[in-house]
Input
Amino acid sequence: MSFNRSSQRGFTMALVLALAVVMGLMLMKAGPALGKEVQRENEAELIFRGEAIASALKLYFAKTHRYPKDLDEVMKLRPRVLRQKYTDPMTASGDWEFLTQVQAGASGNTEGLPIVGVRTRSPLNSIHIYQTKTQVHDWLFSADQNLLNLNNNLNQIQGLTGGAIPAQIPVPTPTPGK
Output
């Protein structure tokens, strides 16, 4: 009888080992899909947070007639215009790259310059397409529309059409008194 029990133990051990191998193979196959799902969720959160910060910067400017030098200034404004000081969901550090109202000097240091927007520091190709961009680093969340190349795109269209703007492209017209 002891022979029978030890052979049963060996069979059970082989079965457990085979199940572990099969589960490992299934997890290896599901791993990339899980990684894509995490990235998709992080990108959606990036869009939410970036747009919330851009909106808060617009409101900050409307109330103070200037842009802040950091997000802490935005958080001090009462009543609050930003729910919390959001971090970048695409990077481990959570640090944003700030878009400034004026260009940085030769050193590239933007500290102390008025910020008008944020973007992620992540170099990943995106799953979502946002602002016709396919790299998350190229997504700009800005309170200043000039940073979003709206005026530059209009100038390019005018250059391609000899100054005439095609009828299907809406052109913003300045309102009197503004």
Notes: The CA atoms of residues 154 and 169 lie 9 Å apart. Confidence is low (pLDDT under 50) at residues 153-172. The longest strand covers residues 125-130. DSSP finds three helices and five strands in the chain.
